[in-house]
């Protein structure tokens, strides 16, 4: 469904990604793990076309993503839940969610989607009229995920959804992510919470210094000593 | 790209003997105005181009300088030339207080605050008739009939201003100013008090702008608040002079000043009478278009983007330009 | 091409340009400096057209002793430094024999300063600040009365007809406005009228009501206003809205005599008096003809500024005809000896009060009656009798 | 008297407590690591020490001076240099000029400042690029420049914020060498770093924080085997 | 007492128009973080459009809103697209070069209008120009009342647009978080153009509404540009409610200042308030109202 082929990318003259290739098949749940600064978020930004690769190609189904302007990505069926939530703090939860369904296709089904999402996130339902900036961290993350769902995506990409959340909340978020996967949405997730994510995903890639160094089934990687080393340096 | 020293020397020589080889008072007058704008543009440039604090209110200093000289005559009954001594320090005091208010602000807020303060000065000068004579203005008798004296005075002032700024820029202060322009947070972490050095930059800048104001009083013999505190004809003009020539370069404002003053005069007089009269109405329009063009295509001004100008030149001449690179 | 070579060539070229002599022509050149761009362009334009009109007539009548007269117009854009540039250019580059024009007081100052220094005769046509002719500058002559004289004609009207006890003065914060206010305040004191309020304002305001409510509270017999035309019409419109009812509204010339004032203020302009320097029905030879010809030629009204320009042109021509030579001293001498009649009235440069080389003219009072400006005072020359006392409720109905 | 210490350091942004009651000491001459997962408040601690943010409560002491409430530039003059996680080169100045800005802390003479800067550049192995514009440097050189600039202010304590992030392994190795060299020159270092190979390698002691609170402290080996740390990094099973 | 009430009435009525001017500016400031120093000049262009429509086609000024607003909207979009947006990709020494660009635009607009219409004062005289409504002895200028009413209607319309439509929400979203808006499929470049267009259209409305009570010449824009940014900062950058409050506050403050201090210092009152707010309440009225 999504393929990155030999992508080199960076910011200005700073190269961050070196020859990155990986693929996500339909209905799969793939995780990218790696220490900070390994280039995970950069990959996300490349997929969302926020930065264009210096070389290499990004394909989604039959479409070259790297040649599409960023605001058209969501129309193709990819919803990006960005790092640190990136909500619109001075707008209500409801408005934030509505902004998730701007594309004509999603807009047509806005009411149904909203109902579905509210069932999925009862806590947001209670806080519809509250300003997003006043939500707690966990609720903000839920709001961001819900906003992504509003576009009825074929595929969702999550950038560190557990960032800054307590372990308990992290677990709740992961349960939600799994439920979304259960609804038939293809998932790509970037995480630093290695153990929990590897336990729930189908497949994972390990990134180090902007390169893919390992690939495998989640459970297998969990046992791999190299992963532990990459994170704790021992 | 190092500027050619020969061409610099020729220009300096030309300016030094200009009034001797050009007997016309008219051209002397234009060059005096241009030299005065060199001073104003360069001082603005020190604060904005080098220190990164874009002031929209330099008219405040120009006006205070001019009125210092004017009040010497009307209130102290001494020669307006004393104003040349007093204007600098007076402006620095004023600038210090303005700095205390404005340097608490960054970016667009700073721009607006300076603009507002200059406007407050203008309105105060209009209303405070006991001190300033209000809109009746101050009229003094000029000292010299011969423009040559004024010309050399302006030339020395401009040279002193440019030299002083050149020295400052090459000293510790200059390094600090540019550091603040490039990244205020980084500068602070390097032990640079941004408030203190912004204030120093403002003080120097206001000093020379004030001198230019005092010179204006002495040279023109007449001032009123609308003229010397004008938002469009002083504050904005100072910005245009510097950005067209090239902000953040030593020679940029000087080049800009000559371009702007000559351009204005050329258009006002319809290319010295060669073109039909309606052309004379177009000078502000041409300023506006020039500003748009420079900002859009030559962001660093004529001096700052000299390489681009050269490239344009050589293209027209079908001559490949030896790759200069930077 | 080397950069230095380019610069050398450019410099040589520019020196060449500087030294290039103005092409010698047979015509006698006179520089005229007026604002034709900028905020003051409106009146500058009327004056310029009048100068041009007069020029055509003069040249058609044989010019200056057989030579053609030529006016070189320069635009001062309403700024003193530009006015100075223009004057310098005319004197040194165009080598004119004398200067004319001068609209705004500040610009006129700047020009006069240059003219005096270079010993170049300058006939001021409009710049009205008293100080211009108080400098003992022997090369500066002024055809129009100084601002202090504007209400002189009004004085007798006030003492004989209105007899106000109290007055409020509203003036725009410009050179013209504030010097006018100063002079009128002294006039009031002299006439025993108590000035209950004297307040300046920034021209270009939208809402004058805050000022006018204070006037209403002070309830003066006379409201004297010094404003340009648009402020004038707003002031009157808003006075009407607030139902200000003094004995009389009097404008201090300028805006209150222009057709635009009536056009904008509508019925609020009715019955408003104004001091003025000139009116087309005055018994000066050619005044009415000048007005009609201007109206026909340009399709617009003219007023006292135009008359000043038109008269100036004739004074200039007259002086040049009489001058022994075109040397500045001779032209100056001829100007000083001027004694002629113009559409603007008799012109003779004398010294009075603190002024020198000043033309002294009577001034008049006009009143807007049925949407027309009528000369109402002094009675001998009035085109219509004045309307006083005024029933404002009826006028404004 | 400790060389450097924080006492119950706390910082709240509105309702969010970013740093909560953190106390630690640094011994003169050591390399002290500060680690924690993303968003755990490490950079905030630096910004507090550096005076960039005002402290909500608690104390910071450096050589016996209380730093609370001092502006950033004064703290620098007291002898604390820092680098930024997101490098802040003075873009339109050359490398040498960048460093000279710092060197002017010690002198007002241009030639002296230049001499001193050249020394520092030599030390940081940036001499070859001294005339390059800072905006044209590679990321590795920019990080070096950050360090060189901090060194040129003549600090006794150096705060290094993620100096290795985004570097190639080879550059990292060179970076480690440089950090050791700085320590050997007698400068105490506090380092925030994500790349564990680096931090475990060079630190004498490490403090690990999560959610703004300290969860473990000690030698690298102790910290790496601490259950709380492993959980913080890898998550609970 | 009458003096006070009349002053307040004048202030509030003029404040309605100020609010309209400020609203456009605050929209632009909120989304693009720049000061639009051409704001009053855009207003001036709209006034000329209204004037031409009245003078040559005899169209009532209030109807010409339907022409002047779309026309200025288009002009605004073009300015943003071809002059301001390209600057985002250029690095310059002076970081505020977008502001300087608006200065250039302002100069060009003024001079082009001067070229076409000369410097003459123009005005539109409608039958209702001087109509007045009296409540006891307090005078309400009729065109000003209408202008106030339409200003409030337009404000309500703007609020509806910003709060209830997707495009309006996208504008707010872009102002608050440009990157996130991009990810959700908002074409930020188009939004900036739209915003500048809207800002220009609101300025156009203010100009058109002002024309029956005021007059027109090429330099009329300058003072209104100054007022616009005072209002914007007073209300808090980017805050629409703040801009309305700011407009009213400025109107009333100027009126009170003119009545009780001095008419000559009317403009200075605004400037002093402005500096005080900048220094002591940098968030503007927004910090008090929290919206």
Which properties best describe this structure?
heteropentamer, A: 234 residues, alpha/beta, Rossmann fold, 6-stranded mixed β-sheet, 4-stranded antiparallel β-sheet, 10 helices, globular, D: 237 residues, 9 helices, 25% strand
What does this structure look like?
The complex is a heteropentamer of chains A (234), B (326), C (397), D (237) and E (291). With 234 residues, chain A is an alpha/beta fold. Chain A contains ten helices and ten strands. Chain B has one domain: ABC transporter involved in vitamin B12 uptake, BtuC. The longest helix of chain B has 27 residues. Chain E has 291 residues and is mainly α. Chain E has twelve helices and two strands; from the N terminus they run ααααββαααααααα. In chain E, α3 crosses α8. The model of chain E has no long low-confidence stretch (mean pLDDT 86). Chains in contact: A-D, A-E, B-C, B-D, B-E, C-E.
Computed structural class of chain C: alpha/beta
Low-pLDDT stretches of chain C are 20-24
Helix content of chain B: over 70%
Radius of gyration of chain C: 23 Å
Q: If you average the pLDDT of chain B, what whole number results?
A: 86
Gap between N and C termini of chain B: 7 Å
Average the pLDDT over all residues of chain C and give the rounded result.
87
If strands are numbered along the chain, what order do they take across the biggest sheet of chain C? Answer: 7-6-8-9-10-14-15
Q: State the low-pLDDT regions of chain B, or none.
A: 317-326
- Tally of strands of chain B: 2
CATH superfamily of the largest domain in chain C, called what?
Response regulator
CATH architecture of chain B: Orthogonal Bundle
Main sheet properties of chain C? 7 strands, mixed
Amino- and carboxy-terminal Cα gap of chain C:
79 Å
Strand arrangement across the biggest beta sheet of chain B: 1-2
- The number of helical elements of chain C comes to 13
Largest interface: B-C, 45 and 47 residues
Give the domain tally of chain B.
Answer: 1
Cα radius of gyration of chain B in angstroms: 20 Å
Produce a short descriptive summary:
The complex is a heteropentamer of chains A (234), B (326), C (397), D (237) and E (291). Chain A is of the alpha/beta class. Chain A has helices at residues 40-47, 93-99, 104-108, 110-120, 122-126, 137-149, 167-182, 194-200, 218-223, 225-232; strands at residues 2-11, 14-24, 29-34, 55-60, 63-64, 78-81, 155-159, 186-191, 203-208, 211-217.
